[in-house]
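Example S7 (structure tokens).
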């Protein structure tokens, strides 16, 4: 399981790793995508 969070900024055309705090959640067996017309959200 990868414990990384990578965010893509469409305005700057760059990926970055935001600062995070707290415990890493447990892994899951599935994932999904959603969009609101401006953002693509990947979860799971």
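Recovered sequence:
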């Amino acid at each position: 399981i990868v414990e990384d969070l990578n965010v893509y900024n469409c305005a700057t055309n760059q990926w970055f790793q935001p600062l995070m705090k707290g415990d890493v959640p447990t892994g899951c067996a599935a994932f999904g995508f959603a969009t609101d017309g401006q953002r693509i959200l990947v979860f799971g």
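Notes on this example. DSSP finds no helices and four strands in the chain.
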